[in-house]
Structure formats: C-alpha cells, structure tokens
Amino acid sequence: QVQVVESGGGLVQAGGSLRLSCAASGVAFRINTMGWYRQGPGKQRDLVASITLGGSTNYADSVKGRFTISRDGAKNTIYLQMNSLRPEDTAVYYCNAVTWTTYWGQGTQVTVSS
C-alpha cells in the first residue's frame, strides 16, 4: 500500500522558518519526481517546488530565494526548508510522488501570522 506522509507544518510568525518533510513508502516503481504543492483558502493547488531523481529542482517564482527543496533518494524522502515566511505562504502543503502515476499525501497546515 502506497503512503505519502507529510510532517512539519505549524504556526509561525512572519519572518520565521519551518521545515517540512515528506516520506513515500510502498511504491513499487521508481519515483522520478517528488514535489510540494500548496492550496490556500479559496485558491487552487499550485506548485511550490519539485525535485527529480537526478536532483534537478524547480521553484515557483514566489518562493525562489526563500524556500529550498532537497531529497534523500535512498529513502524516498523530500524536505522543504522555508525561510522568511510571509502571511501569504499560509496554506495546506501537499507532497506528491510521481511514478507512472501520481501519489498524494493528505497535507500539512502551515500558518504564518503577521
């Protein structure tokens, strides 16, 4: 059974930092890409950052220079280091793992207070 589990969300003041973790288990096929998406209240789910098996990264313009995605390929685990957080970063953050299909986690809430 495939599981994608996020952790590390919480409440932080503007300017603070959080580190999210995501672990994928039970995946029978090689995971090519893992990524973080977020969905704010009343908004669509958008890409935050992604990383390929080879280590190539992609970031949304709004988080470049503030967020860093990294990957432990041996463990099918990714991390999102979020610095200089802003109230507009408040959202549910979802992790996904892409093989021949896409698996999603349940999400973790990040709330940034002003």
Describe the structure.
It is a single chain. The protein has 114 residues and is mainly β. It has strands spanning 3-7, 10-13, 18-25, 33-39, 46-52, 57-59, 67-72, 77-82, 91-98, 102-104, 108-113. The strands form two sheets. Strands 2, 4, 5, 6, 9, 10 and 11 form a seven-stranded mixed sheet that branches. The protein has a four-stranded antiparallel sheet with strand order 1-3-8-7, with no helix packed on it. The chain is globular.
Notable traits:
four-stranded antiparallel β-sheet, mainly beta, 114 residues, single chain, 0% helix
Count of DSSP-assigned helices: 0
Mean pLDDT: 95
Q: Residue share in helices?
A: under 10%
What is the N-to-C order of secondary-structure elements (H for helix, E for strand)?
Answer: EEEEEEEEEEE
**How large a portion of the residues is in β-strands, by DSSP E?**
over 45%
* Backbone CA Rg: 13 Å
- Note poorly predicted spans: none
User: What quaternary form is this?
Assistant: single chain
Largest sheet: 7 strands, mixed
The computed structural class is mainly beta
What's the end-to-end separation, in Å? 40 Å
CA-based shape: globular
Total DSSP E strands: 11
Short description:
By secondary structure, this protein is an all-beta fold. The chain is 0% helix and 55% strand. The protein is built from no helices and eleven strands.
Write the layout of secondary structure elements.
Elements: E1 3-7, E2 10-13, E3 18-25, E4 33-39, E5 46-52, E6 57-59, E7 67-72, E8 77-82, E9 91-98, E10 102-104, E11 108-113
Parallel strand pairs: 2-11
Antiparallel strand pairs: 1-3, 3-8, 4-5, 4-9, 5-6, 7-8, 9-10, 9-11
